[in-house]
Structure formats: structure tokens, C-alpha cells
Amino acid sequence: MDKYCQHHKIYNGGKSEYYFFTWSIPEVSLINNLSVSTEQFKMLNENTYYASLYGSKDDITFRITSNSGNLKCFVSMIIGSKTLLLSKSLNASSSSYGSFYYYDLIKLSSKDESFQKLKTHPNNTVAFICKVIYPGCVSTGLVKKVGNISKDSLYNLRSLAAVLRNSSESSLKEKVLLRVGEETETVSKAVLCARSPVFAKMFENDMREVKENVVTVTDIKMPVLKVLVSFLYTGKLPSCDFEFLCDLYYASDKYDVSELGQICVGLLIPQISMRNIHRVMKLAFFHNDELLKSTVMALIATNIETWFSTNDWINLINDEPKIAADVLNFFDF
Predict the structure, then answer these.
(1) Is it true that domain 5-135 has CATH number 2.60.210?
(2) Residues 87-127: pLDDT tens digits?
(3) Among 89, 184, 190, 322, which residue carries the largest CB count within 10 Å?
(4) What would the CATH number be for the domain defined by 151-268?
(5) Computed over its alpha carbons, how large is the radius of gyration of the chain?
């Protein structure tokens, strides 16, 4: 049976690690003596986990197995990526055997309404959207924290080194002025064009920016633009709060600095909650970010009884009706 699984490690600099994965399995309605598992995913401190799906014509079980007994697990089961079947969370393991702990998040029998709906739904591909939290004490030397030299930072520095090696001395000395209102930031034109395809294309065309070497930015605040520029040079970020990360993600997508965008998403996801989901939802849909979309939908799925009565939902309908329609379509309303 074909299995499609995407796994993302998202480290929080505090006491917890966050992991997020989606698993899509086709033809589940034809289940008969089914037993499939994902690969084993590594966590910090030599911990691991994997997900399994067991089933027959009369029952189905979704389980997470780990050598850690302290996991917190959340899962939403969706048919055909749109119809929410059910959501479940566990703050402790269901059982254990030897050094393994079992988290039975979903157990359905033929008597359950959800099981019957699964069997009769015309689209029999099932998607599991799962978040795993390991609340152990994390060694700060291993955590991917902002400011440390990570693999991503080294990649950025190597890219910068290639720019410096392959550019002429005269081009390296050429400067560009980024202007936001009355404020300006001076940047190496070679670095700007090498690290951002959008800026590179801008200076290839016969535009005013080419003649004046001045770029006026109207939709990004100068502090955010300065951090983006600093990242182009260093591959590192300073400590940023949630709102700043959202603005920085917008800037990274606008100028196609993909490495920065990926880092922003990794830092945003552990902070997403029902208090800020409206902001993240707009980012996810405007920028067509599938990981952010999946995370937002998983959170809504686990709070579906309350979400559609919140002011955020009302504001979403009023401000962004197309996104609201996409949310309703996702849950097959």
C-alpha cells in the first residue's frame, strides 16, 4: 500500500521539542488485515517515535510508538483532505511493553459512526495530521536556537562565500540604497542580487532602480528590512517575537529568500495558538504555504466546536471571505 508521509522537526528553545507530520493513506475503505507504519523519526536525547495504522473490516487503530513515555500527542483524521472525521489528544501513553510506550490516539470499531462514515465516503484516502510534543529537558547545545551556527547558517555563509569569490571587485563595491519612508539601509548590490532572485530580476530590467541604485519599499517596516539584510550577510537571526516573525516571513516571501522563510515557519509553528491563528491563517493562504496551512487546520480541527463561534472566524468572513470559504471547504461543510 502506498504511503505519503511528510515529517518536520520544529525545535523550541525552551523545555519542549515539537514535531509535526502528515500521513496520507489511500484506499482505507478497503482495509482488511492492514498493518502499515511510518519510518522511525528521531527526536533529541536519543528518543524516537513512529506512527502505525492497524485495521480490518471491523476496526481501525492509529497508534504512536515511542521509547519516551512523556509525549503529548494530537491527531486529526481527515477523509480526502477535506472531511474531518475526528480529533483526539493524549497527554500520557495508553500502555507500555518493555522499553516502548504506546499512544493509541484513534480506536474505531464497526459500531462507531466515524468508522461507518469512513467506509461509505466516496473519497477513501485518509490523512492523519499529527503534532507530537516531547516535554523533556532539552540540552541547549543540541537545540536549533536563534543565533547559533546551525546547518542552515553554514549553508548561507557558504553561499555568501561563493558570491564574494565569483564577483568582480568593482561589482562588490557597488551599493544599493533601500528606502523606507525617510530611513535608508545601504547594501552590497552583489550580495542583494545573489541572495534574492527578486532583487536580481529587478536590477536586470531597465527600471528606475537600475539607474539610481535606490529601491523604495512601502510595505515592509525598516526594522524588518534590516533583519532581512543582516540575514543575507550572516545567515543568522536575532531574537524575534511572534509579530516580528510574521512580518519577516512576509518579507522573505516577497523577495524570495527561501532559507529565511523556512526558518521563520519553523519558529512560528510552536507559537501558533487560538489567540493568533487568524494572523497565521492569512499568511498561510496568501503565501500558499502548505505546512502553515496544515498546522492551522490541525489546530482548528482540535478546537472545531469553539472555533466557528469566535470573533476571529467572524472577522475572517468579513475581511477575507475567500479564505473563510477555503476553510469551510476543507472541512466539507
Answers:
(1) yes
(2) 788 888 999 999 999 999 999 998 998 888 887 776 567 87
(3) 190
(4) 3.30.710.10
(5) 23
